[in-house]
# Entry
Amino acid sequence: MIDIKSNLTQVQQRIDDAVKRSHRDSRDISLIAVSKTQSVDAIRTAYAAGQRHFAENYLQHALDKMQQIHEPGLVWHFIGAIQSNKTRAITEHFDWVHSVDRLKIAQRLAEQRPAHLPPLNVCLQINISNEASKSGLTLEQLPEIAVAVNQLPHIRLRGLMAIPAHTTDTHLQRQYFRQMRQALEQLKAQGLALDTLSMGMSNDLEAAIAEGATMLRIGTAIFGPRLKT
Ligand SMILES: *Cc1c(COP(=O)(O)O)cnc(C)c1O
# Structure
C-alpha cells in the first residue's frame, strides 16, 4: 500500500532539509503534486493531507478528474505537451501552464482565456539538456520569445520550466538547474518581472532547491509508481 500522507510528509522533510542547507526560505517554494495517471481518490487523499497544487500532463484525464473533484482551494497546473487544438480547454480549466514552448501556443492561450478568469500563469519550457526527444525552447530562442509572450494580454509570464535529462550525478543536475537560474536572471535584467523557476522532480529536488527552484513538480515520491494509462 502506498501511504500518500506519509510520502507527503517525507517529501516535505526533504524540502525542509534542502532549504536549510541552501539558506533559503521555505515560503518561496511550492510543492506541486504531479497526479498524472493517479486516481481521483489519490488526489483526495493528498488534499486531505493539506496538498493544494496538482499537476496533470494529459488533458482529457485532467478534465475527467476535475469534474469529480470540487474541493475548495485547489490549484491546477498543466505540465504536458500542448497541441494547438487543446489550448482552449487548457486555458479554460487551468490556473498555470508550465509547458509553453512556442509563441503560437501562448497566443492561443491568451486569446482563448475566459474574460471572467484572472490571467493564466505561464512558464516557458526550456530544453535545457538539448535532448532531441524533449520539447522546449533552446536558450538561444528564449529571449525573443519571452519578450513577445510577456506582452500578451490575459496571460502572465511567470518564469521558466525544465525537465533536464535524467541523471543521478548531482553535479550535473545542479549544472542544468544553474543554467535555468542564469537564464531567468538575464530575462529579469532585461526588465521582465519574473518570479518562477519550475524545476525539480522526485530524484533531483535537492539540486533544484540549491539552484533556486520556486516550484517543485513531484510525482512518484508522493503517489508511488505511475499507473498504466
Ligand atoms: C511526471 C512529471 C513530473 C514528476 O516526475 P517524478 O519523477 O514522478 O517526480 C514532473 N514534471 C513533469 C513535466 C512530468 O511529466
Q: What stands out?
A: The beta strands are 30-34, 53-56, 75-78, 96-100, 120-126, 155-162, 196-198, 215-218. Residues 34, 36, 57, 79, 163, 201-203, 217-221 surround pyridoxal-5'-phosphate (CB under 6 Å). The longest helix spans residues 170-189. The two ends are 19 Å apart (CA to CA).
